[in-house]
Amino acid sequence: MSKKILLLVLFVGLTLLSFGKTKISVWQFMMDDTLSKQVKAQFEAANPDIELEIVQLSWATGFDRIVTSIAAGSAPDVIELGNTWLATFASQGVLRPVDDIVGKVKDDYVAWNFVEYQEKTWGFPWLLAPRAMYYNLELLDKAGLDPDNPPKTWVELLNASAKIDALGPDIYGVGLCVGELYSPYQEWFLPAVWGNMGHFVSPDLKKATLNSDPVIETANYYRSLSNFALLGKESELAEAFGQGKLGFFFAGPAYINNTQRDYPETIFDVTLIPKPRDHHGYHASFAGGEVLGISSQCENVEEAWRVIEFLLSEEVAMQITRTTGEVFPTKIGIEKDPWFESHPLHATFLEQNKYAVPFPPLAEANKIEQLFTNIVEEILLTDAPIEEILQKYNQQIQNLL
Amino acid sequence: MYVKSTWGIGAGVYPLCPFLKQKKKKGDVFILKLKSKYNLTTFVFLLPWIITFIIFSVYPIIFSFGISFTDYTGLSPEINFVGLKNYFSLFKDEIFLKAMRNTFIFVIGTIPFTTVISILLAVLINSKMVRFKGLFKAGFFLPSVMSMVVISTIWRYIYSADGILNYLLQTIGIEKNTGWLASPDTALLSIMIMNVWAAIGYYTIIFLAGLQSIPEELYESASIDGASNTDKFFKITLPLIKPTLFFVIAINTIRSFQIFTEIFTMTGGGPLNSTQTIVHYLYLTGFRQFRMGYASAMAYILVIIILIITLIQQRVLRSEY
């Protein structure tokens, strides 16, 4: 009898305890199941009043799941978003402005331009994924180039690509992305425009400037580079690079580990993206990254913030870096972490991040990104005059601003 | 005769058949009416399905029709009635028109090949010349049971810039620095070829079933009369598998108009929208550009297209039988 009473008390106690907890759901892409469980355990141990639910999304369908959940009124409390999506989500009222919270950590993290839209802050910069230039040391050597001095300017890159391309029918100077969304403009056309001191939209984000001289010059250069280029999806280019068929290739840090694992015979290095000329422009790169936002449907903002604060911490963010090798924490001074000493290629990406520029915070960013993919493909895959292409899309972008 | 109007609705309505009776009306047209007396037990057992069908099929169909007249984004709760604006805008939308064109090219370019190859393979497997029939049947049917995502991924490797196809071309002196899916001239054609390869197994099996229902005596008497194999094919086989042929064409037409997975997995509609199809553009518009109202209008244009083509096919069917 006493056993039954004890069990009943235990049951009631546990039930009350579970009802006493606040549940916070986090939908994210970067942590796998094992890491999610670790993070959940660590967080709940430190915050016994919160039950943390971490859901991993896939890159293929995650975006759709987020949109569907918002439309259904069942959005998670904390959402990981790609930094290019933030303005669109913010403009639709999906996210809660966090200006009242952000002051607590503003000085500890970088990349706040990822989360600003119309003079408000809509989230927290979590992870960085800048793009840099991979190069094959062996091919540079075979082409009579100095592997210790990879190209630093556009002309040097063009000449080096031409020499490598001449090495054989299945060897290509450089890989340029086409045939899919996003990568064609991110790697590397739009950053090249920025590096050439150009912009596709005016600083007040009201006027399209795609037909300006720096953009035209960049587009012409890009087309000339295509003479020595392998054109394909990013994954195809990464594979060709691993197989030793590509001299140069622009991408994020994700391919370091993959290439080392799948193609151990390929000797490669990573360097800053070339700038237009010695005394002009800069080594601009695309500032890819992940941000954490609080859903406007979230009812427990204080608890959601505690979860975000935990995820932002160096401890958790570095765990993600160590596990994936694809992203880096936004924490100031992270380059001093001993992990980067033993991972010099990743450290180069951190160096490249100083020149990384995010996509402008435009409400119609998603539509403009799709236009940019078309722009790059028209430059690389057609013979249409550059000015004509840029003029046509300038008008389309203007219509969206 | 009941003909499925679309995959979803057709399959969905089918379980209701116990409650429906078919009544002849002027000529050969049949209408469906609810039986006045039905088995309550059957209804109770079907209830879970009926509820699911109403929630997940009927409601979304009605809801999407409603939002096709609005500027609903899916993200913002704000919804404004815009009348027929979405429908009119579609016919000024260059990408939608291109997607329509690509979809029609896809339908017209794949169905004849799929049908002819499937018939030929079925006839071949059904003939006495071929041994190990089971092996061939299983082999041809294999792509049908594989996920289209898996098939698309395999073909992506074949078509990639440094893939098998370019490698083979290189051995005969043709160099290509672009993947087949990365060139606007070859991307759609490449997907069409893959689609034909993936689809023929399924239709071969259907044709095989049709062929096996033809009485052997017909061929024997034709042989006695001195008919050649070609005569037998055109005078016996083809006329007798016509119902199967129409079924295959109808189903394949509907499936082809709804092509999505191959495009989503292989090209994302690119390059330069050369593989953009109606359903993929609908998805992009709804889920990437957050124009759910506009995307819904697109869906209803597709419904109308499929409806017209299905009615034409139904008419052809009626005139034949």
Q: How is the topology of this model organized?
A:
The complex is a heterodimer of chains A (401) and B (321).
Chain A: H1 2-20, E1 22-28, H2 33-46, E2 50-56, H3 62-71, E3 78-82, H4 86-91, H5 99-102, E4 116-117, E5 120-121, E6 124-130, E7 132-136, H6 137-142, H7 154-165, E8 172-177, H8 183-195, H9 213-225, E9 229-232, H10 234-242, E10 246-251, H11 254-262, E11 268-271, E12 285-294, H12 301-312, H13 314-324, E13 328-329, H14 338-341, H15 344-352, E14 356-357, H16 365-381, H17 386-400
Parallel strand pairs in A: 1-2, 1-3, 8-9, 8-10, 12-14
Antiparallel strand pairs in A: 3-12, 4-5, 6-12, 6-13, 7-10, 7-11
Helix pairs in contact in A: 8-16, 10-11, 16-17
Chain B: H1 7-13, E1 20-25, E2 29-34, H2 40-67, H3 85-90, H4 94-126, H5 133-145, H6 148-159, H7 164-171, H8 187-212, H9 216-224, H10 229-240, H11 242-257, H12 261-266, H13 278-288, H14 292-320
Rg for CA atoms of chain B: 23 Å
Please tell me the total number of domains of chain A: 2
Task: Walk across the major sheet of chain B and give the strand order.
Answer: 1-2
Q: State the shape of chain B.
A: globular
**How many separate helices of chain B?**
14
The percent range for strand residues of chain A is 15-25%
User: What's the CATH superfamily of the largest domain in chain B, by name?
Assistant: MetI-like
Written description of the protein model:
The complex is a heterodimer of chains A (401) and B (321). Chain A is an alpha/beta fold and 401 residues long. Chain A has two domains: 23-130 and 287-357, 3-Layer(aba) Sandwich (D-Maltodextrin-Binding Protein, domain 2); 132-272 and 364-400, D-Maltodextrin-Binding Protein, domain 2, CATH 3.40.190. In chain A, 46% of the residues lie in helices and 17% in strands. Chain A has helices at residues 2-20, 33-46, 62-71, 86-91, 99-102, 137-142, 154-165, 183-195, 213-225, 234-242, 254-262, 301-312, 314-324, 338-341, 344-352, 365-381, 386-400; strands at residues 22-28, 50-56, 78-82, 116-117, 120-121, 124-130, 132-136, 172-177, 229-232, 246-251, 268-271, 285-294, 328-329, 356-357. In chain A, strands 1, 2, 3, 6, 12, 13 and 14 form a seven-stranded mixed sheet that branches. The model of chain A has no long low-confidence stretch (mean pLDDT 91). Chain B is mainly alpha-helical and 321 residues long. Chain B folds into two domains: 7-67, no CATH class; 88-320, MetI-like (MetI-like fold, Orthogonal Bundle). In chain B, 67% of the residues lie in helices and 4% in strands. Chain B has helices at 7-13, 40-67, 85-90, 94-126, 133-145, 148-159, 164-171, 187-212, 216-224, 229-240, 242-257, 261-266, 278-288, 292-320, and strands at 20-25, 29-34. In chain B, strand 1 (20-25) and strand 2 form a beta hairpin. In chain B, helix 4 packs parallel to helix 8 (187-212). The longest helix of chain B is centred in the middle third of the chain and has 33 residues, at 94-126.
